């Protein structure tokens, strides 16, 4: 696969931004748990927050291939920032673009796509993740209003978001067909940030537990039709998975780059360790595996752009890229020796930031489940 | 006011260049190429002048092989209005490029030509000066500040002794120094818009320009490797070495 001139320009522009405006601050944000508000604002101005949203709705009007190139570069600069950008693009913008009414698009999609407002996606609950039909959060109708009650877990940007896309039950008896989707402004009384998770990595993102306590929203907040929530929740799985896969590739690339830099500098037995074949071959395997992962991400994105089914390919890309990324990050730490285990060098942070790629947006075994089903068909 | 901006495609500043084994030049096969950073500053300055309402049209020009189109597309994405590639696979030396730019400045009736003070590949620092001479118009090299008003350009220049501010009557040639501005990041929608802007390709012959090289490269060699320093016992020994060994004092 060869990139077009435009795609190369997108990559180069995002690379300069990420290397100059994200990478130098990533360690500091990690230590202080600071939300990269300024960087997110700048990324919005560059068009990176609503990449596949058409220009008429405030987006950059680009394709998924451009999105994965962008996410890889942002992730290579800072893993946390890439997650915020990924959620905004794939979920907040992706779902509102597809299912929002004209009024909802006017009110929310435009500022979301421009990066002026931030969105979050509330599906997962304390007891259920990928098994989306087992949610218990309720939205009870009360005249022209709905009243939300329940708990949502692991919500990226839950505290900093301006609007939440919430999946809740409107008709328990109807099962999957009784689930609906809502756009809830986070300043609505009853939207409560109950807890911020103390995570292994990605400290610059806020991962919140959201408590809905008699959260009363106008019926106009309903997105799509009543009962369409389950379908909506699962509608953007491919895009989400391709996005996480691109992030995994980006984070692993920065670990690989750090390992190469270190291996050229560090001298043992009179030569830079990159000249020791054991180190050199390890780097070769890291680079080769990573390149294969990147090609799978690109292939899945190209299929998506061509409007072809790509759920299996997206799952394969997510599975392979996140597993390879963990191996690459582990090997990068190994090459650094003791220095890989301390925070003076970036690889321990990158490992911690990257590790969740094997978990969120469907853990590795869920991807295997999806791919396995396709094989058994 | 029309403004002409010249951009050169060079080896990316991050690339560690290697000399070819036959010492004929630097190896640029399979090497990342990008816009000369000084020229990027020139494009940015032109776009800022346009945004300030001083300039009506920005024409960006490059001379070189067909791949220079990529460099021109980048300039269009930053905000130039249209592009001209003077396509040639020949070794284009500063005088040849200056002649090409003169022909285009005449043809386009440009009121100003902005270009980098030098390119980071050969570091000649000659094209702007030669162009001003050929056009017989004023020049301000190494600009760190440009103000346009009433048909005049007031330019602050970075010179050895500090800063020098001069006034020029337009049309004029300005070459950019590093501190003139900080080029913007190209926005994603503008990359797509750049695709739709006009990029005209002409040959040097069509401009009636003689591009024959005037300089001959005899040999390209790597600079000598830095050797390790030595520790001296005291200041007296240092002074002695500076005087007799290095012969600098």
Instruction: Report strand % of chain A.
Output: 15-25%
- The percent range for helix content of chain A is 40-55%
Shape of chain B: globular
Most extensive chain contact?
Answer: A-B, 21 and 15 residues
> Overall pLDDT of chain B, averaged?
95
Tally of DSSP β-strands of chain A: 10
Total count of helical runs of at least 4 residues of chain B: 6
CA-to-CA gap between the ends of chain A? 29 Å
Task: For the largest sheet of chain B, list the strands in their spatial order.
Answer: 9-8-7-10-6-1-4-5-11
| Largest pleated sheet of chain A | 4 strands, mixed
Supply the number of helical segments of chain A.
Answer: 12
The helix/strand order of chain B is EEEHEHEHEHEEEEHEH
Distance between the termini of chain B: 53 Å
Give the overall shape of chain A, derived from the CA principal axes. globular
DSSP, total strands of chain B: 11
Question: What is the rounded Rg of chain B?
Answer: 21 Å
Strand order of the largest sheet of chain A: 1-4-5-8
Instruction: Please estimate the helix content of chain B.
Output: 25-40%
Topology pattern of chain A, helix = H, strand = E: HHHHHHEEEEEEEEHHEEHHHH
Structural class of chain A: alpha+beta
Write the layout of secondary structure elements.
The complex is a heterodimer of chains A (377) and B (249).
Chain A: H1 5-22, H2 26-32, H3 37-46, H4 64-77, H5 79-99, H6 102-114, E1 119-122, E2 138-142, E3 145-156, E4 163-169, E5 179-185, E6 191-196, E7 207-218, E8 222-223, H7 229-235, H8 237-265, E9 267-268, E10 271-272, H9 277-305, H10 311-336, H11 347-355, H12 364-376
Parallel strand pairs in A: 1-4
Antiparallel strand pairs in A: 2-3, 3-7, 4-5, 5-8, 6-7, 9-10
Chain B: E1 2-6, E2 9-11, E3 33-35, H1 37-51, E4 57-64, H2 68-78, E5 82-87, H3 94-108, E6 112-116, H4 127-135, E7 139-149, E8 152-159, E9 162-169, E10 172-176, H5 188-196, E11 199-202, H6 235-244
Parallel strand pairs in B: 1-4, 1-6, 4-5, 5-11, 6-10, 7-10
Antiparallel strand pairs in B: 2-3, 7-8, 8-9
